[in-house]
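INFO batch 0412 | record 1 of 1 | parsing
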Amino acid sequence: MSPLLLGITLGAAGAMLLDPEQGRRRRALLRDKVTRTMKEGREFADAASKDIQNRAQGIRAHVEGMRGGPVSDETLVQRVRAKLGRYCSHPGAVQVRCDQARISLSGDILASEVEPILEALRAVRGVQQVDNQMNAYPSAEGISSLQGGTGPDRERLALLQGDWTPGIRVIGGGAGALLLAYALARGGVTGIAALAIGAALVGRASTNKPLGTLVQRKITQPA
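INFO prediction complete | emitting C-alpha coordinates
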Protein backbone atom coordinates (compact mmCIF):
# COMPACT_ATOMS: atom_id res chain seq x y z
CA MET A 1 0.00 0.00 0.00
CA SER A 2 1.36 3.40 -1.01
CA PRO A 3 1.99 6.07 1.68
CA LEU A 4 -0.73 8.27 0.16
CA LEU A 5 -3.34 5.52 0.21
CA LEU A 6 -2.31 4.53 3.74
CA GLY A 7 -2.66 8.14 4.88
CA ILE A 8 -6.11 8.43 3.34
CA THR A 9 -7.22 5.18 4.99
CA LEU A 10 -5.93 6.20 8.42
CA GLY A 11 -7.48 9.65 8.06
CA ALA A 12 -10.88 8.22 7.17
CA ALA A 13 -10.72 5.78 10.09
CA GLY A 14 -9.74 8.56 12.48
CA ALA A 15 -12.58 10.76 11.27
CA MET A 16 -15.11 7.98 11.86
CA LEU A 17 -13.85 7.23 15.37
CA LEU A 18 -13.41 10.86 16.46
CA ASP A 19 -16.71 12.11 15.08
CA PRO A 20 -18.29 14.26 17.85
CA GLU A 21 -21.75 12.72 17.41
CA GLN A 22 -21.17 9.07 16.49
CA GLY A 23 -17.53 8.64 17.53
CA ARG A 24 -18.22 7.40 21.07
CA ARG A 25 -20.66 4.73 19.87
CA ARG A 26 -18.30 3.63 17.10
CA ARG A 27 -15.37 3.40 19.53
CA ALA A 28 -17.49 1.32 21.91
CA LEU A 29 -18.55 -1.02 19.10
CA LEU A 30 -14.96 -1.36 17.93
CA ARG A 31 -13.76 -2.06 21.48
CA ASP A 32 -16.45 -4.72 22.00
CA LYS A 33 -15.63 -6.34 18.68
CA VAL A 34 -11.90 -6.45 19.43
CA THR A 35 -12.56 -7.89 22.91
CA ARG A 36 -14.92 -10.52 21.52
CA THR A 37 -12.49 -11.45 18.75
CA MET A 38 -9.61 -11.83 21.23
CA LYS A 39 -11.75 -14.01 23.51
CA GLU A 40 -12.86 -16.22 20.63
CA GLY A 41 -9.27 -16.45 19.45
CA ARG A 42 -8.05 -17.63 22.86
CA GLU A 43 -10.86 -20.19 23.11
CA PHE A 44 -10.11 -21.49 19.62
CA ALA A 45 -6.37 -21.71 20.38
CA ASP A 46 -7.05 -23.67 23.59
CA ALA A 47 -9.43 -26.05 21.80
CA ALA A 48 -6.98 -26.55 18.93
CA SER A 49 -4.11 -27.26 21.35
CA LYS A 50 -6.15 -29.87 23.24
CA ASP A 51 -7.35 -31.45 19.99
CA ILE A 52 -3.82 -31.77 18.60
CA GLN A 53 -2.54 -33.19 21.89
CA ASN A 54 -5.32 -35.79 21.99
CA ARG A 55 -4.62 -36.80 18.40
CA ALA A 56 -0.89 -37.07 19.10
CA GLN A 57 -1.59 -39.26 22.12
CA GLY A 58 -3.89 -41.43 20.03
CA ILE A 59 -1.23 -41.89 17.34
CA ARG A 60 1.39 -42.73 19.95
CA ALA A 61 -0.93 -45.24 21.60
CA HIS A 62 -1.67 -46.83 18.20
CA VAL A 63 2.04 -47.15 17.42
CA GLU A 64 2.74 -48.67 20.82
CA GLY A 65 -0.12 -51.10 20.28
CA MET A 66 1.40 -52.28 17.00
CA ARG A 67 4.60 -53.19 18.81
CA GLY A 68 2.82 -55.73 20.99
CA GLY A 69 3.88 -56.69 24.51
CA PRO A 70 2.26 -55.70 27.83
CA VAL A 71 0.10 -52.59 27.82
CA SER A 72 0.04 -50.12 30.70
CA ASP A 73 -3.16 -48.64 32.06
CA GLU A 74 -2.00 -45.19 30.91
CA THR A 75 -1.59 -46.45 27.35
CA LEU A 76 -5.04 -48.03 27.42
CA VAL A 77 -6.55 -44.74 28.60
CA GLN A 78 -4.92 -43.01 25.63
CA ARG A 79 -6.25 -45.62 23.23
CA VAL A 80 -9.73 -45.36 24.70
CA ARG A 81 -9.74 -41.56 24.55
CA ALA A 82 -8.60 -41.68 20.92
CA LYS A 83 -11.43 -44.09 20.08
CA LEU A 84 -13.89 -42.08 22.17
CA GLY A 85 -13.22 -39.01 20.05
CA ARG A 86 -14.38 -40.97 17.01
CA TYR A 87 -17.68 -42.15 18.49
CA CYS A 88 -18.64 -39.38 20.90
CA SER A 89 -19.78 -35.85 20.06
CA HIS A 90 -18.64 -34.56 23.49
CA PRO A 91 -15.57 -36.62 24.50
CA GLY A 92 -14.52 -33.95 26.99
CA ALA A 93 -17.64 -34.70 29.05
CA VAL A 94 -16.57 -38.32 29.61
CA GLN A 95 -14.02 -39.33 32.22
CA VAL A 96 -11.92 -42.44 31.55
CA ARG A 97 -10.19 -44.53 34.22
CA CYS A 98 -8.31 -47.77 33.84
CA ASP A 99 -7.40 -50.40 36.43
CA GLN A 100 -5.62 -53.51 35.21
CA ALA A 101 -7.09 -53.30 31.69
CA ARG A 102 -10.60 -52.63 33.02
CA ILE A 103 -12.01 -49.38 31.68
CA SER A 104 -14.46 -47.30 33.71
CA LEU A 105 -16.47 -44.53 32.04
CA SER A 106 -18.26 -41.72 33.87
CA GLY A 107 -19.64 -38.30 33.01
CA ASP A 108 -22.38 -37.19 30.64
CA ILE A 109 -23.28 -38.68 27.28
CA LEU A 110 -26.09 -38.64 24.72
CA ALA A 111 -28.17 -41.79 24.99
CA SER A 112 -27.95 -42.47 21.25
CA GLU A 113 -24.14 -42.72 21.48
CA VAL A 114 -23.86 -45.13 24.43
CA GLU A 115 -24.08 -48.48 22.65
CA PRO A 116 -21.82 -47.54 19.69
CA ILE A 117 -19.22 -46.24 22.15
CA LEU A 118 -19.30 -49.34 24.35
CA GLU A 119 -19.06 -51.63 21.32
CA ALA A 120 -16.12 -49.67 19.92
CA LEU A 121 -14.24 -49.56 23.23
CA ARG A 122 -14.65 -53.29 23.85
CA ALA A 123 -12.80 -53.83 20.56
CA VAL A 124 -9.80 -51.69 21.63
CA ARG A 125 -6.68 -53.84 21.84
CA GLY A 126 -5.79 -54.63 25.46
CA VAL A 127 -9.14 -53.68 26.99
CA GLN A 128 -10.62 -56.56 28.99
CA GLN A 129 -13.76 -54.96 30.37
CA VAL A 130 -15.75 -51.73 30.01
CA ASP A 131 -17.76 -50.49 33.01
CA ASN A 132 -20.40 -47.97 32.00
CA GLN A 133 -21.19 -45.42 34.74
CA MET A 134 -22.11 -42.57 32.38
CA ASN A 135 -25.21 -40.43 32.73
CA ALA A 136 -27.15 -40.83 29.48
CA TYR A 137 -29.48 -38.06 28.31
CA PRO A 138 -31.95 -38.18 25.39
CA SER A 139 -30.85 -34.69 24.27
CA ALA A 140 -28.29 -32.03 25.14
CA GLU A 141 -30.94 -29.52 26.20
CA GLY A 142 -30.19 -28.15 29.66
CA ILE A 143 -26.94 -30.14 30.03
CA SER A 144 -23.99 -27.73 30.06
CA SER A 145 -21.35 -30.39 29.38
CA LEU A 146 -23.18 -31.50 26.22
CA GLN A 147 -23.43 -28.09 24.56
CA GLY A 148 -21.63 -27.53 21.25
CA GLY A 149 -19.46 -30.41 20.13
CA THR A 150 -19.19 -32.08 16.75
CA GLY A 151 -20.89 -35.17 15.37
CA PRO A 152 -18.90 -38.42 15.67
CA ASP A 153 -17.17 -39.46 12.46
CA ARG A 154 -17.05 -43.21 13.21
CA GLU A 155 -13.47 -43.66 11.97
CA ARG A 156 -13.95 -41.35 9.00
CA LEU A 157 -10.78 -39.63 7.82
CA ALA A 158 -10.50 -36.29 9.65
CA LEU A 159 -9.98 -34.25 6.47
CA LEU A 160 -13.17 -35.68 4.97
CA GLN A 161 -15.38 -34.68 7.89
CA GLY A 162 -18.00 -32.03 7.25
CA ASP A 163 -17.07 -30.18 10.44
CA TRP A 164 -13.33 -29.90 11.10
CA THR A 165 -12.15 -29.89 14.70
CA PRO A 166 -10.03 -26.88 15.83
CA GLY A 167 -6.84 -28.93 15.59
CA ILE A 168 -7.57 -30.06 12.04
CA ARG A 169 -8.42 -26.47 11.07
CA VAL A 170 -5.05 -25.28 12.34
CA ILE A 171 -3.18 -28.09 10.59
CA GLY A 172 -5.14 -27.70 7.34
CA GLY A 173 -4.82 -23.92 7.33
CA GLY A 174 -1.09 -24.11 8.06
CA ALA A 175 -0.57 -26.60 5.23
CA GLY A 176 -2.56 -24.35 2.90
CA ALA A 177 -0.45 -21.32 3.85
CA LEU A 178 2.75 -23.25 3.16
CA LEU A 179 1.42 -24.29 -0.24
CA LEU A 180 0.55 -20.67 -1.06
CA ALA A 181 4.06 -19.57 -0.11
CA TYR A 182 5.51 -22.38 -2.24
CA ALA A 183 3.31 -21.37 -5.18
CA LEU A 184 4.47 -17.76 -5.01
CA ALA A 185 8.11 -18.82 -4.91
CA ARG A 186 7.89 -21.64 -7.48
CA GLY A 187 5.58 -20.45 -10.23
CA GLY A 188 4.86 -22.54 -13.33
CA VAL A 189 2.42 -25.44 -13.56
CA THR A 190 3.50 -26.85 -10.20
CA GLY A 191 2.98 -23.45 -8.61
CA ILE A 192 -0.51 -23.14 -10.07
CA ALA A 193 -1.48 -26.54 -8.64
CA ALA A 194 -0.03 -25.63 -5.24
CA LEU A 195 -1.86 -22.28 -5.37
CA ALA A 196 -5.20 -23.95 -6.03
CA ILE A 197 -4.78 -26.58 -3.32
CA GLY A 198 -3.40 -24.06 -0.83
CA ALA A 199 -6.26 -21.62 -1.42
CA ALA A 200 -8.78 -24.44 -1.02
CA LEU A 201 -7.25 -25.56 2.29
CA VAL A 202 -7.07 -22.02 3.68
CA GLY A 203 -10.67 -21.33 2.66
CA ARG A 204 -11.86 -24.64 4.10
CA ALA A 205 -10.03 -24.07 7.39
CA SER A 206 -11.10 -20.45 7.82
CA THR A 207 -14.80 -21.01 7.13
CA ASN A 208 -15.06 -24.61 8.42
CA LYS A 209 -17.47 -25.30 5.57
CA PRO A 210 -17.11 -28.05 2.93
CA LEU A 211 -15.82 -26.65 -0.35
CA GLY A 212 -18.89 -27.92 -2.19
CA THR A 213 -21.11 -25.88 0.12
CA LEU A 214 -19.01 -22.75 -0.41
CA VAL A 215 -19.05 -23.12 -4.20
CA GLN A 216 -22.81 -23.77 -4.27
CA ARG A 217 -23.44 -20.73 -2.07
CA LYS A 218 -21.31 -18.57 -4.34
CA ILE A 219 -23.14 -19.76 -7.43
CA THR A 220 -26.61 -19.20 -5.94
CA GLN A 221 -25.84 -15.70 -4.69
CA PRO A 222 -27.63 -13.04 -6.73
CA ALA A 223 -25.39 -10.97 -8.99
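INFO post-check: The chain is about 60% helix and 10% strand.
INFO record closed
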